[in-house]
Specification:
about 180 residues; alpha+beta; Aminopeptidase; 7 helices; globular
């Protein structure tokens, strides 16, 4: 499985990726967001709801957004979605970062974060990068901290799709070049 990292392809998302992105997004929410998002929502048709969101995002991208996928032999391994210039103080928002569970710990998330940082730094006015991670998602917090992210805030987030609220932590990289360099 370690070979996935060397042969992983990172590229902009296209309409052919939408179904796999929606399925991974729903799976990730179901696995990691119980207790924050309402069970009735997570147990419902989250895939169709995410499919509608991702179909629109990919078909009609905002000029200030970027969706990157990681793939190997046509199989989606993960994706990242960024909103540039989202916050005057913190910069670009890494709104989504999800990796297929069986492919975690092989560099895919790090590769997506590095490519996200490159896109932020390539903009005419580069900014910092930040994200929100739910307080209950300690594995993700450890991942971001290991990549140099600093916790710079905590606030009640939501209501989430379908309802529910939870505390989130703002993790920030004021200088995202540290994500581009190998650890």
């Amino acid at each position: 499985m370690g070979n996935h990292v060397r042969r992983m392809n990172l590229r902009a998302a296209t309409s052919k990726d939408v179904e796999a992105i929606a399925a991974l997004h729903a799976q990730s929410w179901r696995q990691n967001y119980r207790g924050a998002y309402l069970d009735a929502y997570l147990d419902g048709d989250v895939v169709s709801e995410r499919l509608a969101v991702w179909t629109d995002r990919v078909a009609h991208p905002e000029p200030t957004d970027s969706t990157i996928v990681a793939e190997h032999d046509g199989e989606l391994l993960g994706f990242a979605h960024t909103k540039f210039d989202d916050d005057a103080d913190w910069g670009a928002l890494l709104e989504n970062l999800h990796v297929v569970p069986d492919h975690k710990r092989f560099g895919i998330g790090s590769g997506l974060m590095a490519e996200t940082a490159r896109t932020v730094l390539a903009r005419p006015a580069p900014t910092g990068l930040y994200l929100w991670v739910l307080e209950q998602n300690t594995a993700a917090q450890a991942f971001y901290t290991a990549r140099g992210g600093r916790q710079v805030g905590r606030e009640l987030r939501g209501p989430f799709p379908g309802g529910g609220t939870a505390f989130g932590l703002r993790m920030a990289w004021p200088d995202p070049t540290r994500l581009v360099r190998p650890a």
